[in-house]
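#struct-pred

JT: dropping the chains for the assembly here, can someone run the whole complex?
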Amino acid sequence: MKNLHRTSIIYTLLAVLTLGSCSKNFLAIDPETTANSDNFYKNQEEVEQAVNGAYNILQDLGRLHLWLYGEMRSDNTTFQYNNQDRGLETREFIDQFLVDASAEPIRQFWQLSYQGITRTNDVLARLDEVEMTDEKRAQYRGEVLFLRAFHYFNLVRQYGGVPLRLAPVESPDSALSKGRAPVEEVYNQIVSDLSSAADNLSNATISSAEKGRVTEGAARTLLAKVYLTLKKYDEAIDQLRKVSTMGYSLVTNYADNFSPEKKNGAESIFEIQYLGSQPSLSSNFMYQFAPYTSGSVVTQDPNTNLGGSAGWNIPTQDMIDAYEEGDKRKASSLAEGFTNSSGTFVAVPYVKKYNFGFVEPGQTDVNFPVLRYADVLLMLAECLNEKGFAANGEAFNLVNNIRERAGLKPLEARDINGQDRFREAVFQERRVELAFENHRWYDLLRTGKAVEIMNAHGAREKDGSLTIPTNAYQVTNNRLLLPIPQREINLDNLEQNPQ
Amino acid sequence: MHYLKTTWLNLLFCFITVYAFSQEKKQITGVVSDASGPIPGVSVLVKGTREGTTTTAQGAYSISAAKGTTLVFRNVGYTTKEVAVGDEPTIDVLLETSAEGLDEVVIIGYGSQQKKDLTGSVGTVSQTAIKDMPVSGVNQKLSGQIAGVQVRTPTGTPGGGSQIKIRGSGSIGAGDDPLFVVDGFPLTSSSGRTSNPLAIINPDDIESISILKDASSTAIYGSRGSNGVVVITTKKGKSGQPNVGVTMYTGLQQVPEKGKPTMLNAREFAQFRKEIIEDNFASRGLVATDDDIPVEFRNPEQYGEGTNWYNEILRTAPQNEVNANVIGGGDHSQYAFSLGYFNQQGVLRYTDYDRISVRTNVSTDLGKRLKVGVILAPTYSTQKLNNFETGFTDVLTSSLWLSPLVPVTDANGNRTSYISSPGMYAGPNPLNKLEFGGTNQKLFRGLGSAFAELNLFEGFKAKYSFNIDYSSGSGFTFNPSFVGGINAPPESYVPNSSTSKSSTTNWMSEVLLTYEKELAPGHHIDAIAGYSAQKERLDGLNLNATNYPDDLIETINAASLIPSWGQDVQEWALLSMFARVNYSLGEKWIFTGTVRRDGSSRFGANNKYGTFPSGAVAYHIGEENFLKNISWISDAKLRASYGLSGNFNIGNYTYLSNISTANYALGGQLAGGRVATSLQNNELTWEQSKEWDAGLDLGFLNSRINVTIDAYNRITTGMLYDAEIPYSSGFGNVTINSGKIRNRGLEFSVNTQNLVNAFKWNTSFNIAFNRNKVLQLNDRNDPIYTGRSGEGNYTHITKVGGPIGQFFGYIKEGIYMTQEDFDNSPKHVTSVLGSVKYKDVDGNGIIEPVKDFAIIGNPHPDFTYGMTNTFSYKHFDLNVVVVGSQGNEILKQANQHLFNIDGIFNVDRSVLNRWRSEENPGDGMTPTTNGARVIYRDVNSSWVEDGSYLRIQNLTLGYSLPESFLKKSHVIKSTRLYASVQNLATFTSYSGGNPEVVPRANEGGLSTALVPGLDWTSYPLPRTFTFGLNMTF
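RK: done, full complex below.
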């Protein structure tokens, strides 16, 4: 019996030990549905995926935030008051200068921009560890530096100084930022990133299958825009001149710039790429910009309901009136109303620039322009004029190229007889040429006209309105900056912008 | 899994080796009864050992004992009886009522103990008190039964769940659900609102429930023990004549009138809409004419009450249950079978829950040393629900705000298909949505286990068990075009569907060794040691399909577009070693020590393993001479324990930085992209709870009065916390171990036999006080803000020095009553004369969200309590269960739409007393519709209400047919009829329907533990009237 006990115990213990023998593998479980940072960023292909992932955030920003803050906040557009669905009132408050720091869209814009920045930082931090050709490495570096600068340029113009994150956060300990960097420091970084991006991209060759990637031209154009914003006209001219030798040209037909059939054309420098066949990669501007009361008349899509997500970015009367008689751009940019299903004309205007039908219900294929050559010509004209007015000089020619395509008579020095008049003319030309392309708000800001123009716009909007709060549109210099999201104030001890 | 095979072979070999040797043990069965019939819950013990069982609801027991040993029968209120085991296989026992004895067998982690030998704090539930409650899961029955165990049933969803919280909230991010262990198998389950994790066990199959509360009891479950453990054992076979039991009831459920939402009727709503326009014009110095007012609202007098959509979707709903079981066995084999059917129609129309459950429990001796057995328990349930409790557009919530102007049916008696009035949110007729747009869920879940137990030599046993829990579920929703959607009229509504399928497999392989020996007289030791490996894998798939050409075919093949889809795979594994030693010294001292070491796949590379020790001591001070001589003290025991346990509920891959897909388009083609979507944390590990517990068990007057008092102090450190981090880091949150929380409290329970003669009256009362305090949070001790109001602001704050999750919002001071008041008071940027006036907390002269938020309430109760009274006289019995909570507050988040005064929703009746002008200022609390409507519906102090309540949870009156009457049948052993009311009445000042609130998982918080006390529009909790019959044959 005694031996038997011993044998039994030995076997039992043996069984226990057997159970424990492969514990290490037993507890090593990696997720199956996602990769993880331990097994990613290992080869060129994966780095390229990470670069593409950095572009991805542009789609979300483009679908809402870029036009919400770049266009609808300006005097170009407003929204159609929706008395049935008040769920997106904070967007209205952004338009009406009533928005506060805890508004969802303010938080989202910040969040998406920094997600984009983090993705570029992730690539930059790992780029040198992975084996690939120097050309590819330079190209990837250039692409993500451009994207990082693009986000910081948006942030600094909308929020003022912001936390400057130039490396990925690797652990929870380093989650807090060093606080808001001064505006100047942010701009220095943007300039440095864009200069470096342009250099790194100078040898890149983008095949037609990859159209849509950042190019040297895009980096130099954005850099010029930054210099223009900083009123560094010489530096801006230098960059713009380089861009003008890169083979870009105005397309004959203005509307072709927006057509999905003619994506990334000769005039296009950088646009946000969408793909209509993929639900998550498609655009939907046509639906958001249609009057919410228009049923399927505007979109021609009977299967997509226009609820609270429609009726945004509606052109103001002032914008409609800004087009000169005979301007061909007007008809392809906006409509002054629609004829509803019972045959009545409803005078709710809407942006038409992006209406090219749909691929699947709710999904369109149109890209959104960010930088195009017409902008380069107008920026160059503006810079040259700032350096010194020259009657019927190069600056006149640059603007007249654009006016000619629009079917308008050229500017002449006998009408535009001085630097101020020319400045006004370029400002006006930019408004209509680049209408609804998210430039207006920034043009108002950098020309110092925002407070004056927006108060006048507010007075026009409020006149006779029963829906606009009486305290709307009290635009001051302080209110030109968005409030820092309250969440960030709390979590990151950031200083709030004075309101 | 190869080592499993090896283990099996090893064990098999062991079995064969020892097969020939065994002991002279046999199965004894019988029925324990008193003068009025069988007694359930009597503990039956083989004297001098730890082997024991308790009698079933029919009073039957079965135990294996050798000839010559003695069986001890004990029950509260009865004289303990000892019977020697002879040759007879059946021992029926008649117990005398008395005040003697309080010992019963209590199931604990990995074993059982006599109650008198317990060193930790373990609560047990009397089956008699809860047996007649008409609920789908046993967790709902536990309400009010045990001190410190708070059970809340927040919804009346058919088949829906309850939340159990033991000794307060010890965790801020990892959930505070206890661990459920069924027949030794720790289940993966968290309390859900729409699905009850314990619905897989037919309550009728349960033999005993113990709740392990203190760390010395739960430490044996290591990294899963810190929220307490609910240990459930199911009925097992017993040798003897087959005992057939049948229980059934039928009943009706109804929503009580008290607590229903109070919305405007049609006339009032039309008037309200008309006045909004008039007031808006007046505020701009204009006068509204008839042309300015939509025709529907011009003449409110034309409407009467209109439609109360909420009442339209309610009904009186039946509920039925039938269970049958057979328990019996021979000398060497025992069996228990049961079959149960449960059907609950919902009190919201077109919702229901249906369950069939089967359970088999068979064991047999193979020779004299080896016993093997199998448990199989498949359950199949179907549930028809809708999009309840998902947001303000769900069908239930929409029934509150849909236009009361629209009739339910048109002139032809057909349902109005689309409910809309000018300038209002519109939606489908809720009846159509409920009937045709519901979600059908099916769930099969099978629990199975097989074991082999080898008696190696006297006192030493080895048991191997393999357990498996497999479930396969599916859900399907089809939204036909004729129903429509919110702001999507049927004419243009595209039919769509969503499908989900998932299966989960969880297995555990375990070896358990037990040893018991009287080392020397007065020195008794029993010990266990075990090793287990557990692994779970979930596979889930979901598909959304749309562009169906019509409503004819609902399956996905008929759809022309799959706009979104997803797959999820979740796996975790846990490796554990554990041991416990109990040592008793004489009659006075008992010592317990436990330790567990867990390794988990869920934790960071640097912290995969943890060790959880505990120790406890009990001292029978009543055995000391100075107390022994005091006749009115019948028993006195002091307990003390200290231990460490953990909480591992944080999701499976949280420590990793996940790389997810984020594609882009290039050259008109998809360009594959990937990005990091979470932050790596290699330090991530379990949160640890250190708890001491001091207890006192007292019996007075021959144990007619038993009192248990426990005091505890639990410090939870390194809390698993989904910390919000600045977005500039690229991420919104990261799970970290941080902070320190203390829960300390006092629990007091008393059981008394007030009357013990022909008229019997027993009372059990318990009350628990828990205080929750945050001692530390993160490096800078910044508060944690959680929750999300409809306007995107926080609703809760957790900060050092206060309890977890206090309510956080504006302090409402009233409204700007006069121009002077308006001009001289701090304002929000949207404020107007007559709009809501909040306190300028930071004193900067401007009202702003968050900056002007303050703590506005506390969701934690001062104390919770329960009382059960049972009365019996001759053949009648009466049972009353009362539960309550005192001092907790509720944040009624439903106010964010009930108080939406935009005019797009029907609205709470309070608007009838709103400010309209300085001359007509209303009640001073309800603002004008002219402006600042958004901040009026943001979180503020007027949402906070006292949530104290006292509920008569259950009242049951039963009648057992006299034995003399039954004897004639020769078949029926006992018959009892009863009538019962569940949720009879709730006494509370809370304005909502049900003060037992639990936040929804999707309530915007990172973890529900951090957003306590929130109430939305919940599926209403019904009052249930049942009539039942229990029989044994």
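JT: nice. The mean pLDDT of chain A is 92. Chain A has 18 helices and nine strands.
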